[in-house]
């Protein structure tokens, strides 16, 4: 069997603290390494269009919900695990760039919405496609069946950890 870099780390822990070695350690370290590779891709692709990863996340979340591409700032913050201050800074930069706009709710002036502008829709689609292509390049050497099996196993793992979709089929 071929070995990865995590195997080297685990071997060292097996000597130093053998009681810490097990599937949980190996899974955590491998997911961490893979997440790092994916974060590198996102950083590179978003930087190429002048965005930060947080700005990309906001544009992506707004585009993903479909027309009229609008969410409340609090929903954006909670969905992206940002603080209210963090989301405010990101939204301010995106608004200055003309890719989002803020608008009061027509029925309730206490409610504010963040909406993609037409320019924002274009930018969001361009960067989502660029990131997706980069991810496809990363995984290109991996056999397609292994990709499908891994997706299924990771979904099962997340569900077992309580990370279920709010609505069935979502």
Automatic annotation (TrEMBL):
Domain HTH marR-type: 24-163
InterPro entries membership: HTH_MarR-typ, MarR/SlyA-like, WH-like_DNA-bd_sf, WH_DNA-bd_sf
GO terms for MF: DNA-binding transcription factor activity
Pfam families in alphabetical order: MarR_2
Top-level taxonomic group: Bacteria
Chain coiled-coil ranges: none
BP GO annotations: response to stress
Full protein name: MarR family transcriptional regulator
Lineage, broadest ranks: Bacteria, Bacillati, Actinomycetota, Actinomycetes, Micromonosporales
């Amino acid at each position: 069997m071929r070995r990865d870099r995590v195997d080297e780390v685990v071997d060292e822990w097996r000597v130093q603290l053998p009681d810490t070695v097990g599937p949980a350690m190996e899974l955590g370290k491998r997911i961490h390494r893979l997440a790092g590779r994916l974060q590198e891709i996102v950083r590179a692709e978003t930087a190429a269009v002048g965005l930060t990863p947080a700005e990309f996340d906001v544009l992506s979340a707004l585009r993903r919900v479909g027309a009229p591409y609008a969410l409340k700032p609090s929903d954006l913050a909670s969905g992206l695990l940002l603080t209210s201050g963090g989301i405010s800074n990101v939204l301010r930069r995106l608004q200055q760039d003309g890719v989002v706009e803020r608008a009061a709710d027509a029925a309730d002036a206490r409610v504010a919405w963040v909406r993609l502008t037409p320019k924002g829709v274009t930018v969001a689609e361009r960067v989502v496609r660029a990131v997706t292509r980069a991810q496809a390049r990363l995984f290109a050497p991996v056999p397609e069946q292994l990709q499908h099996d891994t997706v299924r196993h990771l979904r099962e793992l997340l569900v077992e950890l309580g990370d279920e979709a709010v609505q069935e089929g979502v």
